[in-house]
Amino acid sequence: GENVEQHPSTLSVQEGDSAVIKCTYSDSASNYFPWYKQELGKGPQLIIDIRSNVGEKKDQRIAVTLNKTAKHFSLHITETQPEDSAVYFCAANGDSSYKLIFGSGTRLLVRP
Amino acid sequence: DAGVIQSPRHEVTEMGQEVTLRCKPISGHNSLFWYRQTMMRGLELLIYFNNNVPIDDSGMPEDRFSAKMPNASFSTLKIQPSEPRDSAVYFCASSSSGSPLHFGNGTRLTVT
């Protein structure tokens, strides 16, 4: 089955700097890669997703890149703000149309 | 839209007691998921319903766990009898065809 690895587990950046979180996946059948942000006491919320027919997608300060050959995808947050502090999860769907396998999460701290 | 609604938000119970977690998916969504989140195992899919029918329950850990979806607007996850190792945050999520997964804010279960 699909296995998703996520790095780093914790990331501390200065406000205004960029943050990059990386994930690798094992199942070449994966074609959907969402990223979720989880704030304390809340459920994960989708912030951006990408499908395998696209190499990059951007939404304001957030971007995701996908390298299908290397089986890795990354989340890039530019001009970080304190409210970006949260736990971020990547996920991949493997050969399933409905099942998401989540990475272990990255705790991002943006220092004011 | 009110989003996915879960109740209770917190549940504390003694080992051996029955626990019932409740979920109201987003109106119009035909897929419902129950996930469990722990520090050790991260986010795990327990069961997936499509059009109120259980499609994949391979993630249900033991026979002590059961889930039902009697109609399109309500689902329950029951643990009987509960054990301390069941302590976790349980999330309900819903989606419709082609739409991303929307999570509720979870139920934090503590079994003493």
Nearest-integer average pLDDT of chain B: 95
The assigned structural class of chain B equals mainly beta
Q: How many β-strands of chain A, per DSSP? A: 11
> Distance N terminus to C terminus of chain A?
41 Å
Report the major sheet of chain A: 6 strands, mixed
Strand content of chain B: over 45%
| Oligomer category | heterodimer
What is the percentage of strand-forming residues of chain A? over 45%
Q: Outline of chain A, from the CA principal axes?
A: globular
Which residues of chain B sit in consecutive blocks of at least 5 with pLDDT less than 50? Answer: none
Provide mean pLDDT of chain A, rounded. Answer: 95
CA radius of gyration of chain B: 13 Å
Class derived from helix and strand content of chain A = mainly beta
List the helices and strands and how they pair.
The complex is a heterodimer of chains A (112) and B (112).
Chain A lengths: L3 E4 L2 E5 L4 E7 L6 E7 L6 E7 L4 E4 L2 E6 L4 E6 L8 E7 L8 E2 L3 E6 L1
Chain B lengths: L4 E3 L2 E4 L5 E6 L6 E8 L3 E9 L2 E4 L8 E7 L2 E6 L8 E8 L6 E2 L3 E5 L1
Parallel strand pairs in B: 2-11
Antiparallel strand pairs in B: 1-3, 3-8, 4-5, 4-9, 5-6, 7-8, 9-10, 9-11
